[in-house]
Design brief:
- The complex is a heterodimer.
- Chain A is mostly beta strands.
- Helix content of chain A is 8%, strand content 42%.
- In chain A, 35% of the residues are buried.
- By secondary structure, chain B is mainly β.
- Helices cover 8% and strands 42% of the residues of chain B.
- Classes of the chains: A mainly beta, B mainly beta.
């Protein structure tokens, strides 16, 4: 076992040397590195050691230009099936891409974004910029339309800011493409064109000449050419709008004659109003819903009957609210409980919580049909109807 | 040709690919009649694969011109005995440049070192230390030196000995 022990001791010391002499470069040795093939030969003639002889051969590592653009789809957008969602009229939609320099040398990147397959939202590109601190905003030191001096293996965040037309409809979509094209390091500037890196027309016969090979493999993606020193990725964006509809229905709860059995809408009968809000959109919540209902003069508001966020449904017979399933609200219009009655304008007002896509939420209260002695007579109603009838 | 056959046999033990003698690059240096002399010339060749009309692929060694990371190359040593006496116990040691690593298809019988040239053996007998005080079997990427030996080179005899590397 002794030889093994010796070997281990020797190996552990050298492993450190090996690690320091071969830096971790995932994408290869830096272009221009001189590599030497050295051989030392010892030999004997007639049993006598001769002087050691040495021979060397050298070459320089060529440039290997490669780049990968990758859309950061943490909130959707990598596919049409799982799109990045935006709202109609949104003006600063930040689409994030990571650009990685897989070359074995530092390069600049020219950045170009385009809207494709826009089927309605009329999206426009506002700006394309380097976003090194990933805050979705252009800061001092960050560049627009290009990135300078990206080291080998370095990754930087790029943001494409787009806006969406206010008239965009729910489920309409578009694609945002970002292309990063390798240019000579330090050649690009704001508004400048820089020097695009091109493949060496032929490998130099001099092994010490640093040639350039474009090796980006984009053969699987039809939107970008293979081996052109650039790469493209796209995000799928879809408009998600709330599609809100409101149905208001009333049902007679009871009347002074029949009670709750087949009640009729006669003076003194209690009527329940149901205002049902439905969001038929694909994904966005319906927010900030405010209800205002001016009551007709023929009915009197029943104090303390306002109820918000009740279970509701909409069918062929209209809206149905299930009383007792929501949150009550006092009659005051000045408190913060989300509901109230203004006797001056004879109006019931209130809010309901956000309605998620595909859901329906109700707002309900009851009124009593005013007796004739209140000054509003059924006769006058009838008369109004007669007056309106064509003769 | 007898000596050549003998040489080939000794090389077979190392099983190192041998290029044709035509691959030899430089003319041997003239030696004095009394002083035996071995000349040496190292080279870097590329593996070029061509496919003929019948679809048969053949790989040949040619002067390398492309040196991008990932490229496989043949590091070779051309030797010649220009003297009048046989050169014996010929040992060539090739420290591998840090920019290249031994290719996986290198002959398993090749004598290599993974400790900076202190000890040599075939790769399957070597191990390297890990960061957790243990050891693991050495891999081609760990090789720091390659060694080849030839028992005897007869006067006037020459050849090429080589191993494959990949640019890191």
């Amino acid at each position: 076992m002794k030889p093994t022990t010796q070997l281990l001791g020797a190996v552990s010391a050298v492993a450190l040397v090996a690690m320091t002499s071969a830096p971790a470069m995932a994408e290869g040795i830096e272009a221009g590195t001189i590599v030497t093939n050295t051989v030392n030969v010892d030999y004997q003639v007639g049993g006598v050691d001769q002087t050691q002889i040495t021979a060397t051969d050298q070459f320089a590592v060529d440039r290997r230009i490669d780049v990968v653009v990758d859309f950061v789809g943490t909130t959707g957008g990598d596919s049409a099936a799982a799109p990045f969602e935006v709202a109609p009229g949104q003006t600063a939609v930040a689409l994030q891409y990571d650009v990685t320099n897989l070359s074995n040398t530092a390069v600049d990147f020219d950045l170009n974004a385009a809207i494709l397959n826009d089927v309605g939202p009329n999206a426009t590109i506002i700006q394309v910029f380097e976003d090194t601190n990933s805050d979705n905003a252009l800061d001092g030191g960050e560049t627009v339309d290009y990135m300078a001096n990206m080291a080998a293996d370095e990754t930087r965040r790029v943001v494409v800011l787009v806006s969406v037309d206010a008239g965009a409809q729910d489920t309409e979509g578009f694609e945002v493409h970002l292309n990063a094209n390798a240019h000579e390091a330090g050649s690009m500037s704001a508004g400048g064109t820089g020097d695009e890196i091109v493949e060496s027309s032929a490998d130099s016969s001099d092994p010490l000449t640093v040639d350039t090979a474009l090796v980006d493999d984009d053969s699987g993606f039809e939107l970008d050419d293979d081996r052109d020193g650039s790469d493209t990725d796209r995000s799928f964006v879809e408009v998600s709008a709330a599609n809100v509809s409101v149905v208001k229905s009333s049902v007679v709860v009871s009347d002074p004659v029949n009670g709750t059995t087949n009640p009729k809408a006669i003076p003194g009968a209690v009527i329940r109003y149901c205002i049902a809000v439905t969001n038929a959109g694909s994904g966005a919540d319906a927010e900030n819903i405010v209800i205002n209902d001016a009551l007709p003069g023929e009915v009197d508001f029943n104090t303390g009957t306002i109820e918000r966020n009740v279970t509701a449904s909409v069918g062929s017979g209209g809206a149905t609210c299930t009383a007792g399933t929501g949150a009550g609200a006092t009659d005051s219009t000045s408190d913060t409980d989300g509901g109230g009655y203004d006797s001056g304008t004879n109006t019931v007002a209130g809010t309901i919580d956000d309605v998620v896509a595909g859901d329906t939420t109700g707002f309900t209260f009851t009124v009593t049909i005013a007796p004739p002695q209140d000054g509003v007579t059924t006769a006058s109603v009838t008369a109004t109807r007669d007056t309106d009838a064509p003769n | 040709m007898k000596t050549l056959t003998k040489l080939a046999t000794s090389l077979l033990a190392l099983a190192i690919p041998m290029a044709p003698l035509a691959a030899q690059e430089s003319a041997p240096v003239a030696a004095s009649a009394s002083e035996p002399k071995v000349s040496l010339n190292s080279d870097v060749l590329a593996y070029v694969t061509t496919t003929d009309a019948a679809g048969n692929a053949t790989t040949s060694l040619e002067e390398a011109t492309e040196f991008t990371p990932g490229t496989k190359l043949s590091f070779g040593m051309n030797y010649a005995n220009n003297g009048l006496a046989p050169a014996t116990n010929v040992t060539g040691t090739n420290p591998l440049n840090a920019a290249v690593r031994l290719a996986p298809d290198a002959d398993p019988a090749l004598a290599v070192s993974v400790d900076g040239g202190a000890t040599f053996g075939t790769l399957d007998t070597l191990s390297v230390a890990t960061e957790t005080d243990g050891t693991r079997p050495a891999t081609h990427a760990d090789v720091t030196h390659v060694r080849w030996t030839i028992a005897s080179i007869a006067p006037g005899e020459s050849g090429r000995i080589a191993f494959p590397v990949i640019i890191r």
